[in-house]
Amino acid sequence: MKKTALITGATSGIGEATAYEFAKHGINLILCGRRTERLNTIQKALERLTHVHTLNFDVSDRAKTLEAIESLPDDFKTIDILINNAGNAHGLDPIDEGSLDDWDAMMDINVKGLLYVSKAVIPQMKARESGHIINIGSSAGKEVYPKGNVYCASKHAVLAITEGMRIDLNPYGIKVGAVNPGLVETEFSKVRFKGDDIADSVYKGFEALKAKDIAEIIYFAVSRPPHVNIADLLVFPTAQASSTIVKKIN
Ligand code: NDP
Ligand code: 8X3
Q1: Average pLDDT of span 173-201
Q2: Which of 19, 20, 77, 121 has the fewest CB atoms nearer than 10 Å to its CB?
């Protein structure tokens, strides 16, 4: 029987690459994001490989999130795999200089958005006593770096929520794990630096991870046998040793 996965943040980067990887393996897809045009383009590309449904909503909008997931047609109502991926960093500033809007965005999207989506999906997994949730954390969820303050806090929260989910959902046989990447070359830096020139320099001088590298790891995690749960993975590019140590060539 084909499985169905709901992926948040499927319009670019890691989420989009995971959609392609899952489609290759015949997993039915519910693709979520705010950019409708991109959702439509990806749906068109992947419909040749699998069944695809799109949901256009902002994860930080509680009512819209619950409404969107509630609106799923019968064919897509049973969600076997949830990939909580939507999120971004907004800004990189010392704690006293950070923008309140950036802080709100990171906590509302990376933390509360993940909770809202999970709240909408978990009851059916619990009722079926099966399901798999993968939260996309970050190396920033394991280590705080200069000026990373609130982004790091949001990703530390993702890790704590992952552990909490794993404990609370353990009686129901639901797998819960986190994949925590280091530097991945996506639109992430463009969002963080709001299109500033600095965004282009983030991945210069070393080979960063590609979104596909993480997508393949996510597929590996969801394709393990029923008794195996990959609980927590930290994935760096070879050039990276920690959040602040990256071997670069000029
Ligand atoms: P991208 O910017 O390429 O993708 C972010 C995705 O999140 C987009 O699809 C975007 O879709 C979606 N998204 C953002 N805000 C919202 C929102 N309010 N509501 C719904 N969807 C939203 O970045 P990445 O692929 O790199 O990031 C994916 C995840 O990986 C994030 O959680 C990020 O923190 C994490 N991560 C990234 C790393 C990196 O170096 N790139 C390293 C470690 C972790 P849309 O704009 O269409 O809504
Ligand atoms: C993304 C990795 O180091 O840019 O979560 O915070 S980092």
Answers
A1: 95
A2: 77
